[in-house]
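Q: Hi! First time asking for a complex rather than a single chain. Here are the components, and I think there are two in total. Is that enough to go on?
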Amino acid sequence: MEIDLTLNGDDVTYETARSDTLLDVLRDNGYTGAKRGCDTGDCGFCTVIVDGEPVKSCIRPISQLDGADVETVENLGTQDDLGPVQSAFVDNAALQCGFCIPGMIMRSKVLLEETPNPDEAEIRDALSENLCRCTGYEKIIDAVQDASARMAGEADVAADGGHVPTDAACRGCDCHDGGVDE
Amino acid sequence: MSKTDEPEPEDEADGGSKIEDANPLEWDEAPNNRKAPAERRTVSNREEKDDAKKIVTGEAKYAADYAREFPDLAEAEIVRSDIAHGVVTDIDTSAAEAMDDVYAVVTPDSPEVPDKPYTSAGQSYPEPSPWDLRVLRRKVRFVGDPIAAVVAEDKDTASKAARKLDVTYEEYDAVFDTAEATDPDAPQIHDADDVENHQPGADYERNIEANMSGEIGDVDAAFAEAEERDDLTVIETEWETPYQSHCVPEPHTTIAHRDEDNRYHLISSTQVPYHTRRQLSHLFDVPIRDIQVSKPRIGAGFGSKQGMITEPITMALAEAADRPVMVETTRREQFHAVRNRRPARVTLRSVVSDDGDLEALDMEAVTNSGAYGPHGMTVASAVGKKPLPLYTHTPNIRFEMTAVHTNLPIAGAFRGYGAPQGHLAVEGHMDEIAAELDLDPIELRSRNVVSEGDLDVASGILKDKEYGRRIRSCGLDDCIAEGRAAIGWDDVEQPDADHLHRACGMALTIQSSGVPGDELGAAHIKMNEDGSFILQTGAVDIGPGADTVMAQIAAEVLGVAPADVLVQPSDTDISPFDHGAYASSTTYITGQAVKKAAEDARETLFEFASRMLDEPESALTVGDESIVSEATGASVSLEEIGYESMYGDEVRAHVMGEASHCTEESPPPFGAQFVDVTVNEETGEFEIHDMVYAVDCGVALNPDLVEGQIEGAMHMSYELATGDGIDFDADGRPETLGFRDYDMPTTADQPPMTSIIVETHEPTGPFGAKSVAEIPVNGVPPALSNAVRRAVGVRIGDLPITPEKIKAALDGD
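A: Yes, that's all I need. Here is the structure of the assembled complex.
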C-alpha cells in the first residue's frame, strides 16, 4: 500500500506492506537514526515525532499514518551545525554506546517545546519511557537541563557544537587549545 | 596479631620471600609516564567522545544499519526448544520449505551447519571454558536452545516459516536448582564424552562443570583454635544472587556474506573480533585468513558480546542461502536465549579477634552456569579471587568454587565477572563482624584492608603455584574519606516519625586491570602529510569511549590534539591483534601499546626534525603540533615533517609506529560505595537518598568517561540489588520476556548518584591509569544490604532486597 507522509518537512510517498510499522518504513528508506531495541514499545530507542508528539515507531502501524507529519533525528542538525538538544548531549558527555540517544533526543525535544524550563522531576517523568543502559541517566538529565538553558538563550550555544565557555556548562573543564567558542 | 603457636615451615617462609623478591615494589617506570596535572596536554581532560556528533545526528552505524548495503540480504529466524530438557526426535521442515521466499531451513543435519563442539566464550586460546555447545542442537538443555533456523527474504517471512516447523521431542526430567542438580539421582544434563576441553574438577555425572579450591595458611587449624579461645569469634553468613540481564541496548546482530574474493566477511556486534575469527575458523574448518570480522559501532556489550552467539548460525545460513544473511536477535531472545549474569550462592565463615583482626576467611561459592559452560570456571573462580585480595593479609584463607549446570538459560560474562556476587558476601560479612563485635564497620575494614606497597597473594589462591601481585597504587583511604564525607556518614539525622529509620551503609570494592600475563594489545600509528595521525588498534570500543582514550594517549605523546588522531574501528583485516574488550583491559593493556607505538613514531619524527633543524636528536622535544629544539627554540611543524617525510629531497620514509603490550601486572582499581537509606519498619519500604561511589582508577584519563562508567555501573549495581531478575515457571519456561517484565531502572526510579574520582598514580599503566569499567558494579548490593541492617537491624542476604523481605525479617518470619 502507498503511504504519503511529510517526513522532515518533505512530502514523500512510500510503498509499504500493510503489516509494516513506522520504524520498518523509516529504516527501509534510510532513516536509520531510529533504532530497533525491542519491537514492543518498551525501550524507546525508536522514538520519533509524529504530529508533534513523541511516538514509539516500532509499535505504530504505518497504515494509520497516511498524511502524518513525521520528524526524525536526521532533521535536527548536522555534525557541523548541531541543534541545541544535540549539542547539549555532546557537551555534557550524555552518551556512551549511543543506541538510545536518537530516541532520547527526540523525546527531549518534545518535552522542551511543551515545557521550555522543566525541573528535574519533570525531565525524569518525561524521559521515563526511554531506557538507557550505559549512563545511569545522570548526564542525560544534565544535558536536557542544559538544552533548556540554551534554547532559552541563557547560555551561549557553540556554533560548532563544541564546548560552551561558561562554568555551568563546562564544569571547569578545559576547552581544548585553539578551540573557538562563540 | 595472634598467630598459631606452630612455627612456620621453612620452605613456606622461603617461598614467601621468593614471591616478595619476584614482585619488588620498585618499578622501572618509563620516562614521562608520570606527569603533574599542569604538564598534561590532553590526558585527564574532559575531551569530547570521538563519536559523539555522529551519535546525536543518528549517523553512527551499528551492525543492522549496514543491511541497506546488501540489496539481496536475507533475514533469519532461529527456532528454539520449548522444553527444558530432552531430545529432538524429529523436525518436519517441509511446510516451511514449501513457502515462497524461504531460501533454506537448516537443522543439525544440514551440511552447512558444523557438527562439532565449541565454546561461545570469546576468550584466549585454548579457551578456559568447556567445548559443550553445538551450533544447532539435537539434545536440548534449556527452553531456548537453538534447534533449527529459517532464512527467507525478510524477517516476517522467516518468522512465519519458523512457526510451520513441526518438532517432536522426547522429554526428560529437568533440574533447575544447583543444590538439587549435584544430587547423584538428578537428571544428567551433559554426557562427559560429548564435551571436549573439560575444565578442572568437572564431574558431569553430578552436573558439575568445574570445581576448584585453594588455601593460604591453615584454615581448619584457625577454626579449631577459635573453639579453644574466648578472644576469637567465629561468624558465618550466607548469600544469594539471581540472574541478571545485560539489557544491552543493541540486540546481538550479525551480517555474514562472501566478499568478492570469496572470503567470509562478518559485520558483527562483538566485543571480541579476533577471538571470534579464530573460533569461527576452527568451527567451520576455514583458514583464519579467509575470515574477516568487522566491528561497527556497538550498542554496548557489558560482557554479553564477549560471546560468539549469532556469528556461527549467520555464517551457516549465508552458506545455505547462498547470499548475505542478517541475524538480529529479538529482545525476548536477549532475555532468555543469549547470556545473563549467573546466580550464585556463597557461604563465608571467618575467625576474628576481639580487636577486629581477621584470622581466617573460609569462602565457598556455588554458581549456576545454566545449561552450558561458557565462562563457568572463570567466573565462579572470580567470585572469590576478585574480592578476597581486599583482605589478603588474613593469614588463613580458603576458597572453594563449584560451577553447576541446570536446565536454565546460559550464563556468560557480565560486567564484574563474578565480583558482584563475591562482594555481596565479603562486604556483607564484614558488617556482620562489625555488628557482632560492636566495631565501627569502616574501622574494621581499615584495620584489615590491603594498602599501597603490599603484596596481594589472595588473587592467586586458586593457582597451583605461589603467586603474588604487588599493589603499586591504592587510594582506598581517600576513597573512604571522600565518600564518607559526601554521604554524610557521621551526621545522619533520624526522621521525626518513629517508624522511619535512616542509616548509611558502605562496601569496599576491587577489580583488576586485564588478566595478568594473558591479554595482548597491539597498535599501529601512521602520520598524514598534514601532521595528523591514523591510529589502528584492536581495542574494541563498545560504547564507553575507548577510541577517544586511545586518541588522547597518542596525542599526549605526539603533541597534537586528540581530534588530530583518527582512530579506526577494529577490524581483523586492518587492526593489529587484540584480545578484545573484556576484563577491564582496554585502557590498561591496549592503551600502553598505543603509548609505545606513538613513542615509536615520535622517534622517526625526531630523526626528520634533527635533519631539518640541524640539531641533535637529544636536543629535541615535542611542542604543540611541532618538534622543538630545547637548545635554540627553533621548531619544525608536524605538517612540515609530514610533507618532508613523503616528498622531501633527502630521506623519504613514512612516519609510523607500532608496538605490542602484554604484562604480568594487573593492578587493581579500588573504590568505596556508600548508600544512604531510610527504611519504614512498618512496611519494609525503603527510600535511597543517595548512592556515592568514590573510585581510585589511577589517573582518570578522561573524567567525563570515568564518571560515565561509574554512573552506568552503579545503575546496574542498584538493579542487581533490588530488581527481580529473571523468573521461570515450574517447567523452566522464562516468564521475563521483555523490558516490561524486567526491573530495569528508568529516569523516574533511578535513585540519585554521586561519583567521586580519587587520583592515584599507577606506575605500570599508561600515564598512570588503571581500569574503571567494571569495578563500580560491585558495591551497591552489599552497601544497601549493610545500610538496611544498620537502619532496622535485619539482614537481607539473598538478592533482591525488597520491602517484602525486609518486612518479613522484621516480623521474624
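A: Chain B touches chain A through 65 residues (CB under 8 Å). Let me know if you'd like any chain examined more closely.
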